[in-house]
Fold:
Amino acid sequence: MLKIPPKQVAPHPSERGRARSDLDRRLVSGVAWTVGARWGGQIVSWASMLVLARLLSPGDFGLIGLTTIFLGLINVVSEFGIGTTIVVMTEMPASTLRQMHGVSLIMGLAGTAASVVAAQPLAVVFHDARLEAVMPVMGIGFILAGFRVVPQAVLMRDLRFKMASALEGAMAVFQAGASLALAWWGLGYWALVLGGLAGNAFGSLLFYVSAPSGIARPVFREMRAGLVFSWRVLVSRVAWYSYSNADFAVAGRVLGEATLGVYSMAWNLANIPVDRFASLLFRVTPSVLSKVQHDHAELRRYLGGLTEIISMVSFPFGLGFALVADPAVAVLFDARWAGLAMPLRLLALYAVVRCAYLPVFQMQNVTRDVSFAMWQSLAMLAVLPPTFYYAARWGGTGIAAAWLIAYPVLTAPVVVRMLSKIGMGPGEFFAALKPAGAASLAMTVTVLGLRQAVAHWSVPLQLLVETVAGAMAYVGILLIFFRPRLQIFLRLVLRRKQAAVT
Structure:
């Protein structure tokens, strides 16, 4: 007898609305818990660092700093993109999860081995024999982290943001306490090494117990799709890590330590404020977006909303720094930093463009367009370092200008492709930038209009007046013309406690 498959019934509009509302609530709640845990852990870390600064010497911190770039790269490689793969590939069965856990442990072991092998060469390069003992011990952290990657990704995939955030906060507090205790006992730089290792082990234990997934021997033919996805994510991240640090490498090699110091300060001032906010927001969005990865209408809605939110933060910070760079540098720094203003201005403008594109890059992984993302990252790796080298003839200002000119050109194909992929028109995308753009225009006009009037005032007073007037103009335009959108933004950013309790 012929069996007729049941007719597929589309969800009722009310059901779709409830599902959308629930997902939005989870997004806000996830951001809230992430903010609470990250800032709580950061406060503890800052406080412990101040105490450690009294117990340890600058040389102790400098020794650990020598390992940062190499271990950072190994950390990217050893994670292998497994966390992103699990979050995005929501259909992955439990048996494959266990095998991915096995791969994670193998990659963690490889990271530990790489740290052991690199110890002696790095000791020679940096002329510090202590690295021969420090590097292998720090490398143990990679195999410990291998136990944490899959459970942490499972918590994020299942939208268990409260649990994930609590565990991350506990891990940060434990690490700070361990480092302080070891420093108090007089272990010197080993307090930082062993304290970090203890926090790593404690965090891995917490995650493994909270979201046990089991461990199985990898059978590569059964997990081919996941490994191909992970590999492409890994290549993209390694390429990103390389070209993101190329400007510092070029500045240090070609321009010298002093110019590198000025450029580094400009980079941190221009990028850290918006990077902190973006990291909190985009920590949870992949998990939420993965739930609607096949619904282009929802993806368009989220892309517009996320772009609007991130632009409301990045535009005033970036354009604000660009507008008041000269008086800000004059007030906050001494004569040794005289060349800081121009690279700060250019990098601040670059940060505006970069942050406007960030939600699009989030969509690349969620829509599984990782092959294009990989090749685009490799193209940027091929183009940016030589561009920085050429631009270095104009000093740190030239390298900053290279970011501002080259980055929008190299990333424009990503935006065009993603908008086409989810059926979003350019007008709809740029409409999401309209509130921040209009408010920023008003801020710019206000600050530039005041400049002549306050030109004869003291520099600190000029900075204060221009900053306050620009901020008032920015907020005023949002309140007058975009009040409903501003209210949505404030609910996401400020109503943390209410969202977290929900």
About this structure: The radius of gyration is 24 Å. Residues 13-55 form the longest helix (43 residues). The CA atoms of residues 280 and 428 lie 25 Å apart. Residues 250-502 form one domain.
